[in-house]
Amino acid sequence: MGCMFGWVGKTVPLQNRIAIKDVGPHRGSWRGPHVTLDYMYTLTSGQLGLTGDLSIEGLRGRLISFNFRLHLIDENGTITESLIIFSSNANRKGTINKDLNLPTNTVAMTFSYSGESEDKMTDNRQTDSFHSSPLYLKKTNNP
Asked: Does 2 have pLDDT greater than 50?
């Protein structure tokens, strides 16, 4: 779950879908307001190999929690599976290295994230939530 609702069954706009192509490797870059993922994937016999370098940027204070999700999408644009592929409670940079068996109807993927940071600049600690949704956020720099 992300952003207080379930992802499975939601429709992703066409411009936010990343088509999954056979074989590879295929490279791309996904950007959200606070996160950049430079990734590479291969698809062989229904097995998706996904690697990438992720960085969290533009947040004030200490990172409290962070979850980065991969959403698998069918031919109708519907999310059929949603998986947390990276989590952190301190590190703003990380590496993704996942091998997944794709459902047979998977034709695309997209990403989302949610997290919290804490700003201790004053005596009053302030917690800020941040997130992105594939249902609204336009992807950028994807071939």
From this structure: no
